[in-house]
Amino acid sequence: MSNLIVSVPNDSAGDIAIATMRRSSERQAVYRYIEDLSDRISPEKELTSIGGRSRTSQPSRAAEILRQLPAHFHLIAVRDGAEGMVMRDFMGLHRDAQAESGERGFILDVEPEWPFTLCALRNGNPTLRLDHTQYLSQLQVPNAHAKLNYGDDVKVALIDTGCDPSVSINDFYDVLNTSNYHPGVWGAVDNLGHGTAMAKIIRDVAPKCDLSVIRVADQAVIPLWHILAGVAIAVIEAEADIINLSLGLVSIAGTCSRCGASGIARSFALEYLLKSLRKHASSSYPTSQPPVLVAATGNDGQGNGFYLPANYDVCLAVGSVNRAVQRSSFSTYGNYAHLNYVVAPGGEVTNSLVTESAISDNAQPYYGTSISAAYTSGVLALFRHDHPNGDLMRLATTLAVPASPTSECGSGQIIYS
To answer: In sequence order, what E strands does 119-169 have?
Structure first.
């Protein structure tokens, strides 16, 4: 079985489409309905009180807000080989955007639950290396600390593989824990080490930031569904100023060989949710800037376009440079102009050998645009401390210094200024 994500409008036409889909799934063995996105982070279950009466648990705040957004997202499991047929049937049947009754509602999009990958190696329990000190100077972080700017109370959310309890964080959420998605810091865990590495870097750049870690994966491959849930938690529950996404999906212009979906279709749910949640944050806190989404551009070293979600204009795309402020050989740099694109240190690989690395596990060095995104998130926390209502993406791009080649490094390297 493989999964598809179905996006529908939050209206009667969308309700009809989902109701029809769920009825059909009960009559056939081709697919089955799994859950609504709001259920993933707030499953409403029957609980038994001390007096013996049953009651239903209350949905989380994130679940309540998700149910108010213009679109709802649903997950279904499909028999292997039937993905393309199911997608075509859904999109062909449900095209009545004005439906008030019947069985033909409206579906915005159907896409595969495409796997995202981490944008740096993962090697267990990471330790900061000497290059990290050089990178801090390169980013002018010591200048901020000299002014007693440690990113005090700026809310940063890290969506990743979790965090080891040895790292000081302020809160912990676990999308993989279906019985308790918010165990708090006492439930912090990371079985891969990637999230721990990112948390250590962010914490060292902005030691007093309010750092929440949201665990969305226990392996190098991350389901899109978990990322959607993680983003919702970061914006609504953690109320993050800055959201770090050190992960990505190769942005392929062609079609999926498994189900025939286009690259545009693959990206619909995540981009729609990111934009909707930023809009929600803006309306809920009109005097504050919406959260900044920091995304790694990818590690294929090619000029064929950033990984998702970095290629969305709603994100601050971050590539990697080395100590010489030159694009790292592995850093994906795209072949188009992205308005919000900067670079930051992420390591270097020369002739297949890692020659620069900010963090490692014993002899196994980490490198990648994941590292660059983490450094950028930390610097943005320092910016937020100095500019409580400033536009962080604009500050990041306008205060950047030149990096080479200039045509491949966007606005340049982010620095604290």
So the answer is: 127-128, 155-160
Residue 42 makes CB contacts below 8 A (sequence gap 6+) with 59, 60, 62, 63, 181
What is the rounded distance in angstroms from the CA atom of residue 388 to the CA atom of residue 397? 17
Could you tell me which of 349, 317, 187 has the C-alpha nearest to residue 246? 317
pLDDT at residue 294, rounded to an integer: 98
Token pair for residue 103? 């069985």
Helical packing angle, 194-205 and 130-138, nearest 10°: 50
pLDDT 10s digits, 7-64: 999 999 999 999 998 888 766 779 999 999 998 887 554 444 444 454 445 678 899 9
Start-to-end CA span in the chain (Å)? 51
**Which residues touch 390 (CB under 8 Å, ≥6 apart)?**
289, 383, 384
Outline where DSSP puts E strands in 79-230: 109-112, 115-118, 127-128, 155-160, 171-174, 210-215, 221-223
Q: Measured between alpha carbons, how far is 11 from 100 in angstroms, rounded to an integer?
A: 9
pLDDT tens track for 117-166? 888 766 567 889 889 999 999 999 999 999 999 999 999 999 999 999 99
Rounded Cα distance, 9 and 96, in Å: 11
